[in-house]
Design a protein that fits this description.
The complex is a heterodimer of chains A (382) and B (481). Helix content of chain A is 29%, strand content 27%. Chain A is of the alpha+beta class and 382 residues long. In chain A, a hairpin with a 4-residue loop joins strand 16 and strand 17. The longest helix of chain A has 15 residues. In chain A, 54% of the residues are buried. Chain B is built from 15 helices and 18 strands. In chain B, the strands form 4 sheets. Chain B has a 7-stranded antiparallel beta sheet, with helices on both faces. In chain B, a hairpin with a 5-residue loop joins strand 8 and strand 9. The longest helix of chain B has 18 residues. The relative contact order of chain B is 0.14. At the A-B interface, helix 5, strand 8, helix 7, strand 10 and helix 9 of A face helix 6, strand 9, helix 7, helix 8 and helix 10 of B. The complex binds flavin-adenine dinucleotide (FAD). The site of flavin-adenine dinucleotide (FAD) has 38 residues of chain B, from strand 3, helix 5, strand 10 and helix 11.
Chain lengths: 382, 481
Amino acid sequence: MVEAVSTVAEIQEGVRTAGRVHVLGGGSKPALSTNCPASDALALNLSGLSGVVEYQADEYTFTARAGTPVADVEAMLAERGQYLPFDPPFAARGATLGGTVAAGLSGSGRYRYGGVRDFLIGMRFVDGRGQEVRGGGAVVKNAAGFDFPKLFVGSLGRLGVLTELTFKVFPQPPAFATVTADFDSLTDLLSSLHAVTGGQIDLHAVDFGPSDGGWTLWVRIGGLDATLEQRVQALRALVSAGENAPRSIDALLGRDEDDLWQQTRAMAWLPEDVGLVRVPLTPRRITALEEALSTGEGAARRYSVGGNLLWLGWPNGDATAGTPNLNDLLLSQDLRGIQLISPAQKHSPDDGKGPVLGKPLQNPFLRRVAASLDPAGKFGGY
Amino acid sequence: MSVHPLMQELAGLYSEERLLTRPGQLMAYESDALTAFQQRPAAVVLAESSEEVIETIRLCHAYDVPFVARGSGTSLSGGSLPIADGIVIALNRLDRILRLDPEERIAVVEPGVVNLKVSDAAKPHGLYYAPDPSSQSICTIGGNVAFNSGGAHCLKYGMTSNHVLGMTVVLPDGEIAELGSESLEGIGPDLPGFFVGSEGLFGVALEITLRLLPIPQSYRTVLAAYNSLHAAGDAVTAVVASGLLPGAIEIMDALAIKAAEVGAKAGYPTTPALLIVELEGEDSAVDAEFAQLMQIIEETAPVEVRIAQTADERARIWKGRKAAFSAVGRLAPDYIVQDGVVPRSRLGDALAEIDRLSDSYGIEVANVFHAGDGNLHPLILFDGREEGALERAEELAGEILELCVDLGGSITGEHGVGMEKLAFLPKMYGPTEMQAMEDVRRSVDGKSLANRGKMLPSGEAESLAHVGPHPLEKAGLIFRD
Ligand SMILES: Cc1cc2nc3c(=O)[nH]c(=O)nc-3n(C[C@H](O)[C@H](O)[C@H](O)COP(=O)(O)OP(=O)(O)OC[C@H]3O[C@@H](n4cnc5c(N)ncnc54)[C@H](O)[C@@H]3O)c2cc1C
């Protein structure tokens, strides 16, 4: 049963009366939201719990209800020349702030100043007893008490229901520029990547992926307009400083540049009817992972955050079935992934694992923490 | 007198010189940098390996004896104060940098590694560890993790928790947990983020994976002197409103300036207020931003402006600022420092109120603070030999904390609640929040053994006193000189 809620009291009531609770936001990550784990669960649709509570531009903070669309917030911030530097993905598909936090999602811009975990500074949530609890604070620096905001980043709705969120924001750089370079091979690209990420140029985003017959690197910088040209020159030199120079290199500015990252945020590279899996990793793991992936069906890939994140387009509807399947593949690489969109929208049985693939989440610390916030396991537990 | 069986077990684990039990040996561990509080533990163990730490915690758990981890003991809130008749696990000897990976820009360290040592080791690779508490030449990464320590450069790159990627921790009953990974991204609840800042209540961090950043190409540091704190505060507002994102924005008042002079011969102008703003980044970007910054600063009518032209000059500006803290100790026999946070736009109100309180108490307060993020550091001067002076200083400190809460801020930006601010956490959070925190702590540490009595009101587990070799005074947790 799906219930649309627009007040905290309704959520509290729902949590108190239901045996099992499942939270829905804007539905932009359907594999997380429609994969309703148990048939008797009460599904709470939070998109009605929406709206900005307070925006203090000169404090670099705002507070909004969990169901507030990311796009609305971005528009509000842009009016004051500010932004969420972690580039929340799926804004165009209707992602909400709560969904972004619960799924723990950051986009390419995360490279510069940190991810959603670094910008969420305060929150309120309804725990498994139906109580509303406040965590963190409203000021950009705060070391008092346990850091509940961090705990809820990536919690997937399994610790409690987020109701209100306070974020730190930053002034948006007045202008951006992107250097793109095509390499013959992944090896060449990775060698350039190390030169770029180990250098002294302040990078906003570092993404790469396979392109026709080779590999393409996109490196974004931002700052005062007048400085960009000179900085782009320096960046081009750095991009070419790997073992083998790129076969072509180009710089984008203005509208074209902006479009490129809009498309990245919208995952425009992802083929239709393909699932989307998010895999954190480090650059050193990439070569082995690419080898493992090459034995299966062709999967679309986009590496982001300087090689700390892979967005993987997985053609097979069920990532745990067949051989080789993605679950086993990630396990063999000692990696963990999470399915955000599944092509067939199959509802898998609740195996307690949720949409997590590869290395299981099980952790003694997490188990203890979850047991205290949700003693009856209403949110599924860990 | 019988010897507590835990002591017998510990004697099997540690050699005599690493198991301290004699009053003379324990003295050095009886307090941390909050010297007003003292407490004698039953024993101090000088651990040299993770295995020893784990085994010690298992034993403490088996015998229901509370324990506290200790790095360098520089906590300003009594965080590493021993628990009466408990065990102190000293981690200084666990000081190895286990791995420094310049390509992935991470360092895996033991908890006793000194903060600055990480940057020293990373420097040949063009990297550094960003969080820079003023105590960075002595404090440990383990202590930084427990308190989510900050420093002058938090505005742009955040505090400790923004730089810890993963950890191996031992929970308070000896079970091991792996939190996070080496990646900047993760799946599932952000467990390293939740452990950082837990003030030792969740157990002991044994191995910490830190993120390193490339050393900025250049810094531009400006020091501007103002006729009033208010004018310096207005300058901060102007800088922040401009859209520039400086690496550091600091303010010092007249008394702090005097301390910096006494302590580091900083050669600062002697004015009522000093502002330090530092930009960092690529040469060309910093040049352009600096021109913009100087224009803004000129408009705020400073009485004097000094620009650091060389690395030496920059170092001199920072030396005075970083020394101001401990140098205040030369202006008065004792001081306590608070580190409450207020919304940046309320800094002026907060400082005026602190000034008023200082007058009405007749107690001198020096202010040196991270203005960019509203993090105050009022240093309250007193003479502990005077009857009642400490109590009055604490009363004043308490009023400042309440002021921060009233203004919508926090009671601590980086020093933690510890022992000192126990009574104030419930003023910032309501009963539901306090209960939720206590529930989590109980679920993680059923016996409340890990750093009992800090941050959250203490539980009631037994302590060694009943049969221990040092039947210490049980009257209260705190002894005051
Ligand atoms: C002069 C001076 C200046 C300072 N400036 C700053 C500043 O600018 N910014 C700032 O944030 N702080 C500052 N501090 C405070 C202090 O240095 C920090 O809190 C520091 O992180 C403490 O480190 P430590 O090694 O001394 O830890 P300790 O004081 O030994 O311990 C602190 C806490 O950490 C716990 N702990 C230690 N190791 C571990 C571990 N491995 N696992 C779990 N818990 C552990 C202890 O139990 C205790 O609760 C300053 C202190 C002084 C004396």
